[in-house]
Amino acid sequence: MKLSAFLIIVLLTYSNLSQAGHHRSERNSFSVTIHSFSKHSNKDETIPFNTLGISLLPNERFILQVKTNKPSVPVKLQAEQGKTRQLAQQQWQWQAPNKPGLTVLRLIHPISKETTELNVFVMVPASNVKNGMLNGYQIGSYPRLPFKNMTTYETPKGFIEVTEANQDTKVSPHFTIGDFLSHQKGGFPKYLVLRERLLLKLEHIIETLYSKHFPVDSLHIMSGYRTPWYNKSLGQGPYSQHIYGGAADIYIDVNPKDGYMDDLNKDGKRDYQDAKVLIDIIEEMEGQSLYNKFVGGLARYRKTPHHGPFVHIDERGYKARWND
């Protein structure tokens, strides 16, 4: 009996290692960096992955810079809309269309055909919010002053419009824009704020999980963006990172896929200790200098009658730790 149990453990371990070893890379041989023209923006991001969602205002500009191991074979830029001006080899200035909506930028390697796809959401300006409402959708009110005068707590300058048609648009290799919608009631269109750095952090977490032999196909986003109105209805504080598009409550839901945290420590239970496994992996990741820019809040929460255990992450710009 003991030998059988041992063989089962070995087979399960081998299966996990095998699956992790066959993880399809979501990276290209080149990276893309976006540089914002606004000093109040944190859109100075290097994108190592093949997909990312970006949000900006109508007519807003940024610079795209490609870094490749073989600059003699330049990557090409294709833009569906907007205005493009090449500044140098592998460098362009791009200006968004003058109306809200979704458009796509593609950077394509001419030989390997590797493609980085940037799904650009041109936002509805925040000035369109009247009495806490945007096109019939309840937004509420943001704090008048940013917490500690930090850019990660500044009132959003615009909102991404999510429709039935675009809700499945990818914002990173493993997530869609619809994954981050506020859970408040109401039909389409809906609106949200979503920061690029949160998406990059989530993708880095997935890569780290694979390196630790947790072959996940995604992370379940239990709560992403919350409007200030909805956040207040939950009794949460006015400076929650959820209202700024910089936070997500997550758990691993792979086997079985049932809307509940998996048994990560293999003790036969699915509880608070499984959230600790996930939080320890993220803590270790954040301790590496490579991930300094993703520092933020990290906490684990116990199960309740309404949900299972989960982990909160955010990229507020300074280290914060707590537990429920």
UniProtKB/TrEMBL annotation:
SUPFAM superfamilies: Hedgehog/DD-peptidase. InterPro entries: Peptidase_M15A_C, Zn_M74/Hedgehog-like. Keywords: Signal. It comes from the Bacteria. Residues 216-252 form the Peptidase M15A C-terminal domain. The keyword Signal applies. Residues 1-20 form the signal peptide. It holds the Pfam family Peptidase_M15_3. This is Peptidase M15A. It comes from Methylotuvimicrobium alcaliphilum (strain DSM 19304 / NCIMB 14124 / VKM B-2133 / 20Z) (Methylomicrobium alcaliphilum).
